[in-house]
Each structure stands twice: as structure tokens, then as C-alpha cells.
Amino acid sequence: MRDLKERSFNEWLVIESQRGEVDAFNKLIESWEQRYFLYAMNRLKSREAASDVTQDSLISISKGLSKLSDPASYPKWSFRIVERRCVVFCGYIIWKP
Prior knowledge:
Layout: H1 2-18, H2 22-44, H3 47-64, H4 74-95
Helix pairs in contact: 1-2, 2-3, 2-4, 3-4
């Protein structure tokens, strides 16, 4: 039941954020930021890199949120963004002169 409530609340936050409600957007980010950081930390094994990737991901999420057509897909959509940023960061490290 808690999971259903949390999903419904997240969907509501996404909808309100898309309508321009800053408080809803702040709550949405507040509830997900730590999860993004932990995911990036697990992938990159560096606090500094995970922090950078998380911030970059949050910027991309905020810019693209208005284009998200299904609020229920927010978790999958946002984690794909974080994953892509991790991959780009790893590519940067590999190819850094």
C-alpha cells in the first residue's frame, strides 16, 4: 500500500511540476536526488563523480520534464538520464587527454 501511495504522490508531483508549480518540483527532486546519487555512486565508485553526474542529471531532468508524456514513467525515464550521464562521464574519463 505504501508503494502505491508513493507512486501516486510522485505522479502528482510530476503533473504539478509540469504545470509550473515550483514547490512540487522541489519536493519531487528532494525525494529522488539521494536515489540518483546512490545509483551514480554505485556505477562510478567516486563521490565527486557521482555528485557531478547527479547535478548534471537533475539539470537534464528539469529541462525535459515538460516533455514527459506519462507521469507514471518518471522513475524509469529519470534513471535512464542518470545512467546516460554515468556512461558519458566514464567515456570522458577514458578519452580524457
